[in-house]
Design a protein that fits this description.
CATH superfamily: Dihydropteroate synthase-like
Largest sheet: 8 strands, parallel, barrel
Order of helices and strands: EEEEEHEHEHEHEHEHEHHEHE
Shape: globular
Helix content: 25-40%
CATH class: Alpha Beta
Oligomer: single chain
CATH topology: TIM Barrel
Mean pLDDT: 89
Low-confidence stretches: 6-24, 56-61
Structural class: alpha/beta
């Protein structure tokens, strides 16, 4: 099946405004993770963020206890989430790594509880292969690795051996130093090269491309201009893997543009999510699932038609 996606861009030149309609046809695709199959392209899917941390940039402490984390995740399911992303290590700018046993203690009980309560696929947000292994055994089917498999070189083989799906994100540096004056000679070219190498490494380990997603890593070693360019051009990452995920939710670039603190960035998040969907993203990772699902119903209705 093919889906036509429409993106309308307003160009201003010398005071004249021209409406340019870019029409592209994209094939619907399937992202596979263990026994889970998600169709990409028909609509924009939503990944709900469940941070089991005391210090995440946006919602640290809100779901740190087991009961709170599970209740938040189940609320996301009711609101229409397609994936639940559980993480136990903050990756905010300047953050320090969490010890293996602490990360396991945070995420495994939550994943076990969710696996018993919902059929919605669960993702483990980690860059440690051992955490991923234990999380998959507890019921997760997707590994969301902010390092693209670069922080733990056992990750490609772990994903291959388990049959899980994987999200390979781009990061420049580490969470501790990634926002220290990030610079690129060719932003899109460097990210495409990074993804091609990362995807090849996982394929060589035995991971089929239909089990891989890429994420340009909004806010992970990028300044305001980098983030805006990546959103505008996110569709250019299509074809590198099964699909494209991105996470603009409550990020600092929204605060830079609106002047709003983290807790008041919903409107900016909705704008970014809508733009990303129009420009070619398949999945959005967000903290505010209900409002995003509603916004995407409108955005997808405007931008995608099934012949």
């Amino acid at each position: 099946m093919q889906v036509a996606r429409f993106a309308s861009v307003m160009l201003r030149d010398g005071g004249d405004v021209t409406n340019v309609m870019d029409i592209s046809t994209v094939n619907t695709r399937t992202f596979r993770a263990l026994d889970t199959s998600l169709t990409l392209g028909e609509r924009t899917l939503v990944m709900g963020v469940v941070n089991v941390t005391p210090d995440s940039f946006s919602d640290g402490g809100e779901a740190f206890e087991l009961y709170d984390a599970v209740e938040m995740a189940l609320k996301f399911v009711e609101e229409g989430a397609d994936i639940l992303d559980v993480g136990g290590e903050s990756t905010r700018p300047g953050s320090e790594p969490v010890a293996l046993e602490e990360e396991l203690a945070r995420v495994i009980p939550v994943i076990e509880a969710l696996s018993a309560k919902t059929d919605i696929p669960v993702s483990i947000d980690t860059c440690k292969a051992e955490v991923a292994r234990r999380a998959i055994a507890a019921g997760a089917s997707i590994v969301n690795d902010i390092s693209g498999g670069n922080f733990d070189h056992q990750m490609p083989q772990l994903v291959a051996d388990t049959g899980a799906g994987v999200v390979l994100m781009h990061i420049k540096g580490t969470p501790r130093n990634m926002q220290e004056n990030p610079h690129y000679h060719d932003l899109m070219g460097e990210l495409k090269e990074y993804f091609e190498k990362s995807v090849s490494r996982f394929e060589e380990a035995g991971v089929a491309r239909e089990r891989i997603l890429v994420d340009p890593g909004i806010g992970f070693g990028k300044n305001l201009d980098h983030n805006l360019e990546l959103i505008r051009r996110i569709g250019e990452f299509q074809g590198i893997a099964a699909g494209v995920l991105f996470g603009p939710s409550r990020k600092s670039f929204i605060g830079s543009l609106t002047g709003k603190p983290v807790k008041e960035r919903l409107a900016g998040t909705l704008a970014a999510v809508t733009a990303g969907a129009l420009f070619g993203a398949d999945i959005v990772r967000v903290h505010d699932v209900g409002p995003v699902v509603e916004a995407l119903k409108v955005a997808d209705s405007l931008s995608r038609t099934v012949p």
